[in-house]
Amino acid sequence: MNIDVKSIIGNEGAKIPISGKVDVFESNLAASLKLSGKVYNFSGSINIDADVDCDIETICDRCLVPVKTKLPFSISEVVGENEVSLHGTILDMGDIAEKNFYSALPMKFLCHEDCKGLCPICGTNLNEKNCDCKHDIIDERLAALKKLLK
Ligand SMILES: [Zn+2]
Ligand SMILES: [Zn+2]
After folding, report:
1. Cβ contacts of residue 50 below 8 Å, gap of 6+?
2. Residue range 55-71: average pLDDT?
3. Sign of CA dihedral 73, 74, 79, 80
4. What's the rounded mean pLDDT across residues 39-49?
5. CA of 124 to the centre of ligand 2 (A)
6. What pTM does this model have?
7. What separation in Å is there between the alpha carbon of 58 and the centre of ligand 1?
């Protein structure tokens, strides 16, 4: 999503509307970002103001079921002379949107806050049913390790 800012450089008050879509794909995550806003000249510098409507499809960090969620955020920055997303007079808005998306992104997504996750032994989704596994197996291993250390 490239925007040529040539027409607003040195043109105080001039603006260019931003409207478009950027897709971000990562392992286990697909996001669709819809941008609306403007790039404008304020006091001689290039500014960006945009609202981003963001739909995310990912999986629960604990139980791996699909999760669909929204993560609206806004972009507000001044484009500096050393801005890596500015190539000549072409502003790579997709690049800027993606950077802002990653800083708005939480560390993990859960299907719901108290998701019980999967049984580490049999893989049963513990939100749906319980299993008969002994969940203290890790403690048994630790006990064995302690014996070894003695
Ligand atoms: Zn879950
Ligand atoms: Zn189990």
Report:
1. 18, 35, 36, 37, 38, 74, 75, 76, 97
2. 96
3. negative
4. 95
5. 6
6. 0.79
7. 11
